[in-house]
Write a structure and sequence with these properties.
Helix content is 54%, strand content 9%. By secondary structure, the protein is α+β, with helices and mostly antiparallel strands. The protein is globular, with a radius of gyration of 29 Å. The termini are far apart.
Length: 693
């Protein structure tokens, strides 16, 4: 108890020290006041630049002089000053965009927010909701939603589970945190995004700039927290900002908003340190589920989907029908039970001592308030859930879900998880539909497990897709209907629209629609952007969509590739002011852009290289089989891969076939490149040369 008081007092002393420092320095005070004020953002913030204001004042003076004298000479001076003003305004506008783009070059969400605000200003928050009462209404709505889900779960009366979860044996425990030095703390700080919270005394960017002067205090707080096993109470409050779910919804209805949580930056520093040490311990002791891809190094939505679609293609090659079930959870992060989570940490991970005490302290006595403009709600206690917007939350949720895999393994059913997205899938042979029974039993057991662990499986939003020969699909769908499982032709899976034919037609339509929308916005503001900044926007908004999970596009038709290529061509024309009828190939060459087809091959080969060199998920490594020969040949030892045979043309799109086929075509020096960066550089040169020369 004394230690807890000590850490919290150090945080309070640090905040007090900052408060005392802020008024002394006018520049800092000005920054803080601007950051913490709730004034409405200007639609044209560049107009407030000092140089623009000065030139505007000169222009107004010249205008008044001309209107007073009506002399031609004064009119000419007015015109000249007006031209200077417009030029200064244009330069300030370009500087503003350049600063925003450079600051957020790796943050597409921030770029979208700024560009969208300036090109399509969103309607202001309804004035009738700007009050303390509305803040309390939002807080009550968000809290009641979670309580209702918990009550529904509590009333479901779970039956006895057929499968009992058994924690893995771990001879090693994580009992103490490693303390930090100044260098380690500075490295941690660099890894954090510069997102500020209204509870922060200093804006995060400014905090980072003056970190060296604050480092002794921050280091003392972090190490005291880790050593004492206590999370500072002052850092347990979250600020909730309601966000309208969709622009076309009624903005006056509280139910149409979702809560966006933000936490103090100092708390995120401590969380980052804790997260890194727990994650490192779990990796070293192989405690992660191999088929959990969420929030793990070298894992992604793309690698998860590649594994799943590879299995579906292989099933199809064996003339089997596949059934994929996408399980949907309701507010999963918010209903996590703290006692269950702490048991998972202790029994399944081996967390003990001051580490376990710190996590107990971190979860206890948390609260939040809703903030709208200058108004705030009353503080509301958080009785369950992992903190939204936190750094630790995703890792803790992964740990919470660890036992779930044993259910699928018991029924011998394939599965993959990504955070709260769980998908299970089976293969069905012709005239043998018994796997469907196992699938239904597995889903029921998953539902029971969810209920026991205070998670709600949303059966209405759970989706089922059937893949395989069309004549067999209808038979499987009929059996699923009899089991109250309704199949659909397509579903959005980890951001990719997957259809039963695996042709991605609707996904490509979605990419096309969103890409042209963003390209239109870029074209609108391109006039006051440098070419370099405009290209950064193209990469952030267009290529991020063309390249997202493009490792799945191994079997795309020429028509589909052409559709994606037209998007890239349009982006090149906007960027270079190329006319519609001008040949585009020289333009793409001058921009050093790989065409879409080569970008797909680049992604696949990069995934292969990373997997073979220990920088990819184990499930991708297992797909790639090294080529071995019975007697020494010149080609042996050059890193070739086995290319499995396939029975159908469609099955050649399987990663296990397509990737080794591409890999074996690479020159030996590229396959044996010493680093990822050298491999990427050499591979791009190779593909670029093949595309344009």
């Amino acid at each position: 108890m004394h230690l807890h008081f000590s850490v919290s007092e150090k945080v309070k002393a640090h905040i007090l020290k900052l408060n005392l420092r802020v008024p002394i320095s006018n520049p800092v005070g000005a920054v803080v006041e601007r950051r913490l004020s709730a004034r409405k953002k200007s639609k044209s913030p560049w107009r407030k630049a000092t140089v623009v204001k000065i030139q505007k004042r000169i222009c107004r003076q010249a205008e008044r002089r001309w209107r007073k004298t009506k002399l031609q000479v004064h009119f000419d001076l007015y015109k000249e000053s007006l031209q200077h003003y417009n030029q200064k305004l244009k330069n300030a506008r370009q500087s503003f965009f350049s600063e925003v783009i450079n600051r957020n070059s790796n943050n597409a969400r921030a770029l979208f927010s700024v560009v969208d605000r300036l090109t399509n200003p969103a309607p202001s928050f309804p004035s009738e909701l700007l009050s303390k009462k509305s803040c309390n209404d939002f807080a009550a709505f968000f809290t009641d939603k979670i309580l209702k889900i918990r009550q529904t779960i509590s009333s479901c009366s779970p039956r006895n589970m057929t499968i009992s979860s058994v924690p893995p044996f771990s001879p090693v425990n994580l009992e103490h945190f490693d303390l930090l030095d100044h260098r380690a703390l500075a490295e941690t700080l660099l890894q954090l995004k510069s997102t500020s919270c209204c509870l922060d005394i200093l804006p995060t960017n400014f905090f980072k700039n003056v970190f060296n002067s604050l480092a002794p205090d921050v280091l003392q707080i972090v190490n005291s927290s880790l050593q004492s096993g206590q999370s500072p109470q002052a850092l347990k409050t979250a600020v909730i900002k309601p966000l309208l779910k969709k622009p076309n919804l009624d903005a006056s209805a509280v139910s149409n908003y979702r809560p966006i949580s933000n936490l103090p930056f100092l708390g995120k520093i401590i969380e980052k340190v804790v997260s890194q040490q727990i994650h490192r311990f779990m990796v070293q002791n192989n405690l992660f589920n191999a088929l959990q891809s969420g929030f793990r190094a070298h894992h992604s939505t793309e690698t998860a989907l590649i594994k799943i679609l590879n299995d579906l293609h292989l099933n199809n090659d064996e003339s089997k029908t596949s059934v994929l079930v996408l399980l949907d959870l309701s507010a999963a992060f918010d209903t996590v039970d703290h006692d269950v989570l702490l048991h998972r940490l202790e029994a399944w991970v081996g967390v003990t001592g001051s580490v376990l005490n710190w996590l107990k302290s971190y979860l206890q006595d948390r609260d939040y308030f809703v903030s709208l403009g200058n108004y705030e709600s009353e503080r509301t206690k958080m009785k369950c859930g992992v903190p939204q917007g936190s750094i630790l939350g995703p890792l803790l949720f992964n740990i919470y879900m660890l036992p779930l895999a044993q259910i699928m393994e018991y029924y011998n059913i394939d599965y993959h998880t990504y955070a709260d997205d769980t998908q299970i899938y089976i293969s069905v042979s012709s005239h043998d539909y018994s796997p469907l029974i196992s699938l239904c039993e597995c889903i029921n057991q998953v539902k029971e497990w969810m209920c026991q662990n205070f998670l709600q499986l949303n059966t209405d939003k759970t989706e089922v897709i059937v893949f395989g020969p069309k004549n067999e699909r209808s038979k499987v769908i009929a059996h699923l209907d009899s089991m109250s499982l309704k199949a659909t032709n397509q579903a959005r899976n980890l951001g990719v629209i997957i259809d039963s034919d695996l042709n991605f037609n609707n996904h490509i339509k979605s990419i096309t629609k969103s890409s042209y929308y963003h390209l239109k916005n870029i074209a609108r503001i391109k006039g006051f952007l440098s070419t370099q900044d405009a290209e950064k926007l193209v990469h952030a908004f267009i290529f991020s969509r063309l390249d997202y999970c493009n490792g799945l596009f191994t079997g795309l038709s020429k028509k589909s590739i052409r559709q994606l290529q037209l998007i890239q061509n349009a982006a090149a024309r906007v960027l270079t002011n190329t006319k519609k009828l001008d040949h585009i190939t020289p333009v793409l060459r001058s921009l050093h852009w790989l065409p879409v087809s080569q970008r797909i091959d680049f992604k696949i080969l990069l995934l292969v290289y990373k997997a073979l060199n220990g920088c990819g998920p184990k499930y991708i490594q297992d797909i790639l089989v090294p080529y071995e020969v019975s007697r020494p040949l010149r080609s042996s030892g050059t890193g070739l891969l086995c290319v499995p045979r396939t029975r159908t043309k469609q099955s050649e799109a399987a990663f296990s076939h397509y990737a080794p086929h591409l890999w074996n075509k690479l020159p030996e020096h590229l396959r044996s490149a010493p680093t990822v960066s050298s491999f990427k550089s050499g591979l791009k040169t190779l593909l670029f040369t093949a595309a344009f020369e």
